[in-house]
Amino acid sequence: MSPLFLFLSFVALLSALGVVLAKNPVHSVLFLILTFFTLSGHYLLLNAQFLAAVNIIVYAGAIMVLFLFVIMFLNLNEETEPHKPALAKFAAAIAGGSLLLILVAAMRNVSPAGYDPASFDSQIGMVDRLGLVLFQQYALPFELASVLLLAAMVGSVMLGKRETGERNF
Amino acid sequence: MTLPALGWQGLVVLVVFGVSLLIATYSTYAERVIAAFLQDRVGPDRAGPFGLLQPLADAVKLFTKEEFFPAGANRALFVFGPCLAMVTALMSSAVIPFGNVLQFGETSIHLQGIEINVGMLYVFGMVSLGVYGIMIGGWASNNKFSLLGAIRAASQNISYEIAMGLALIAVLMMSGTLSLREITLQQSVAGEWHFWNIAKQPLGFIIFIVCAFAETNRTPFDLPECETELIGGYHTEYSSMKMGLYLFAEYINVFVASAVMSVLYFGGFNFPFQYELRDWLVSSQHLELVTASNIITILGLVGLFAKIFGFIFFFMWVRWTLPRFRYDQLMRLGWTILIPLAIFNILLTGGLITFGVIN
């Protein structure tokens, strides 16, 4: 375990905790962005440059901007935050705790398969290799995913379309 | 003095950093001089010869002004906003290839901060992060005009990023690589009549430059700071050097956008007849091949900066020529004109590549 890995993991865990524990929703969003950055750092350590760049562009650069956008508009603060009843908090703590227990129990005896240094291809994360794998080995799932995205796009255009007679400016 | 190769590369990173700051500093001066010229005024001429010390005077003014925090502002984020804007702006110039290789005996120095094989995506990621500085600063000011400016910046950047990415895809289809250095090298091949990408991608370039104006929040798309509607937009509440950092970040973004456009569409550090000139230097002037190559590299560096300055001038020329768009016009231009045009450009490029017209 390199010091860089430990540092990134430390920051990732700390900022992920910050997302949950921050009182201010805007701070939560900013902590989440920091978490994405540390995840991109992990991808870079795994020599997956393309994945790291796309993670930054799509998640940190586009999706989280929209999150921040909506949260700034909602003007959430501590006074307007609805207070959950004690029973709900209790139930959430039990559910979360048992999930943690199951995950730890499942991972306890896992021994990673490891890799063979002789046959391992360190360039597998590069963009050209990834493209070849996506378009040769996984062409059908890739195309299906794009059809799904297209359907979602058409749906959002339908929702956002101006109806007859409606004019806002 | 001998430095290991990594040391030289670190020096290049520092120089790129310094040059970005220097160009941003003198962009403020150039903006005033160009504005004065276009409006038939004198412009700054008090500080130093031709007013050349004006940026220094501005910096002294900004540093010595009162640090003001508006009531109810989120102080930490209020300071963090301009810092983030500056950091993301400065980071994006790291992958731009400013020149080819300089050879000094055993050491070869790439005139580029870092060479990564996803260079274009790196620039794109940094550009998409740039909006956070504006959003955080606008929100933390606790001012409705600042918030509206921040919201405008966010939606404008996201909208124009899509068209920008689609325009870029057409270039990447031709080059087959995301590395900016590779894209530059492909635009000039020794012994062949070779065109820069602008000749193959005129439509893509027009889409890209319009989006670059929107991404850097320059007129005619400076809606986030639109004075007539929003006082000053996201930096209404800012003063002293925090305000200066926002202005600086904008000029660095203009510089980076100009550099990216020069690299992608105008041949980067290539210039016409460079290989002929090198061969002439070797054959007629009896220089060594290494020396001749170094001369070509330095000339290419100068050429790239000439292109960049041309684009920066263009940014300023447009600022004092075109009026500001209305917000719905901006959105309509982005979503219903530029994005379909960019998709058409991708189809066109794909067709032309398939039939072997361009490669």
Automatic annotation (TrEMBL), chain A:
Gene3D superfamilies in the cross-refs: NADH-ubiquinone/plastoquinone oxidoreductase chain 6, subunit NuoJ (1.20.120.1200)
The reaction(s) this protein catalyses: a quinone + NADH + 5 H(+)(in) = a quinol + NAD(+) + 4 H(+)(out)
Signal peptide: none
Localization in the cell: Cell membrane
TM annotation in the entry: 46-74, 86-107, 138-159
Molecular function, one GO term: quinone binding
Taxonomic superkingdom: Bacteria
InterPro entries per UniProt: NADH_UbQ/plastoQ_OxRdtase_su6, Nuo/plastoQ_OxRdtase_6_NuoJ
Predominant location: membrane
Cellular component GO terms held in the UniProt record: plasma membrane
Topology with respect to the bilayer: Multi-pass membrane protein
E.C. designation(s): 7.1.1.-
Keywords noted in UniProt: Cell membrane, Membrane, NAD, Quinone, Transmembrane, Transmembrane helix
Annotated Pfam families: Oxidored_q3
Family (UniProt): Belongs to the complex I subunit 6 family.
The protein's role, per its UniProt record: NDH-1 shuttles electrons from NADH, via FMN and iron-sulfur (Fe-S) centers, to quinones in the respiratory chain. Couples the redox reaction to proton translocation (for every two electrons transferred, four hydrogen ions are translocated across the cytoplasmic membrane), and thus conserves the redox energy in a proton gradient.
Protein name: NADH-quinone oxidoreductase subunit J
Lineage: Bacteria, Pseudomonadati, Bacteroidota, Cytophagia, Cytophagales
